[in-house]
Amino acid sequence: MDSEKVIARDNNYVLHTYNRNPIVIEKGHGLHAYGPEGQNYLDFTSGIGVNSLGYCDLEWAEAVSRQAHKLQHTSNLYYTAPCSKLAKALCRRTGMSKVFFANSGAEANEGAIKAARKYSFDHYGEGRSTVITLVNSFHGRTLATLTATGQDGFHQYFGPFNEGFVYAPAGDIDRLTKLVDAHTCAVMLELVQGEGGVVALDPLFVQEVRALCDEKDLCLIVDEVQTGVGRTGTFLACEQYNLRPDIVTLAKGLGGGLPIGAVLVSDKVAAGMGPGSHGSTFGGNPVVCAGANVVMGRLDERFLAGVREHGAQLRAGLEKLPHVTDVSGLGLMLGVQFEDGIQASDVLAACRERGLLVLTAKTRLRLLPPLVVTAHDIERALVILDEVLCGMDPLRP
Ligand SMILES: *Cc1c(COP(=O)(O)O)cnc(C)c1O
């Protein structure tokens, strides 16, 4: 079916909650996405940080299809090997004690909030349930995670919103400390605010938050839905912040393209989450876990060193481009700020015309290439970006 028909049908029948790019992607291989008429795109979005191994990695696709032929689903009333294998790999890799599997980032964050509140309830009783999150954060689209998201734009139309969330500006430990009272149970943050504009938190601020959480016995929830699973050059971004969280959430890149979320908890938090406390029909699905196990197996130290190396190469190249005033982020999660008068959305559209797919976040261009990106792919993307930016004049938009 040709692109025009696919787009017309989608526009007729799919609820218009997305501003989609006017292109259809039919298949993919590695860094490349292909359209029905043979269009070839170099993809620096990886499905918003999801396709960690690129499109249709052979080992991943074979593991997924082998598992689909063997057992596609049971339920959480029974044990399956792919699920326990993934749980063990995640705990060993992160030093966390136990995992709960969900199906998305928002769902993982819901689980994290529940686990933090349960810990607080068990130790301090009712009424200690408020979660402090950061201004400009993004934690998901369910009602609780929308409320946790520290952006006013998300707190409209769908009310009443949940109680129990308050917001502190990132980097301001005094304001955050002032929000702590007898009702506070947790602090929740992203180490690099992704949707909020690819803003990395100040390491000193993060250490101050950890110390505050220790002092008041608050759970520190780190939302690594976007930063986790190698994206920033270490398995967790926490490692680069020398941070020991009480709860970490993962999702996007973990399944290599299949829907999964994970809530990783420390011993003290795990203790409260007994039978009946939480659940999911699909969570821990064997096909999804088979895919995630391939991702986990691939992300050894050598692989992660490659992510850091390619992240540094991409950052250095971006910094040299015309009209670029700042490059933010960590590893292969980068944001590019342009001079006034150049809109990231215009750069995105011009890149797409030249066969390069990129993202935006707030005023920035955002790059989230698959973790298997090569030096050659990066050079190619930089050439296209250079051509696009050379053709732009901030004074004559
Ligand atoms: C994408 C994202 C989410 C939401 O994940 P979904 O899978 O879309 O529910 C939550 N937190 C962060 C930091 C994210 O980047």
UniProtKB/TrEMBL annotation:
Required co-factor(s) are: pyridoxal 5'-phosphate
| Residue numbers binding pyridoxal 5'-phosphate | 105-106, 138, 223-226, 281
> Mind listing the GO molecular function terms for this protein?
identical protein binding; N2-acetyl-L-ornithine:2-oxoglutarate 5-aminotransferase activity; pyridoxal phosphate binding
Its pathway, per UniProt, is:
Amino-acid biosynthesis; L-arginine biosynthesis; N(2)-acetyl-L-ornithine from L-glutamate: step 4/4
Q: Source organism's superkingdom?
A: Bacteria
Reactions mediated catalytically: N(2)-acetyl-L-ornithine + 2-oxoglutarate = N-acetyl-L-glutamate 5-semialdehyde + L-glutamate
- Residues binding N(2)-acetyl-L-ornithine: 141, 280
UniProt remark on cofactor binding: Binds 1 pyridoxal phosphate per subunit.
* Protein's cellular compartments: Cytoplasm
The EC number(s) this enzyme carries:
2.6.1.11
Q: What keywords would UniProt list here?
A: Amino-acid biosynthesis, Aminotransferase, Arginine biosynthesis, Cytoplasm, Pyridoxal phosphate, Transferase
Please verify whether the record's keywords include Amino-acid biosynthesis: yes
Q: Name one GO biological process term.
A: L-arginine biosynthetic process
Q: Which PROSITE patterns match?
A: AA_TRANSFER_CLASS_3 (PS00600)
N6-(pyridoxal phosphate)lysine: residues carrying this PTM: 252
Instruction: Give the GO cellular component terms, alphabetically.
Output: cytoplasm
Q: Report the family membership.
A: Belongs to the class-III pyridoxal-phosphate-dependent aminotransferase family. ArgD subfamily.
User: What else is on record for this protein?
Assistant: May also have succinyldiaminopimelate aminotransferase activity, thus carrying out the corresponding step in lysine biosynthesis.
Listed under subunit, the entry gives:
Homodimer.
Q: Entry's HAMAP family? A: ArgD_aminotrans_3
Provide the protein name: Acetylornithine aminotransferase
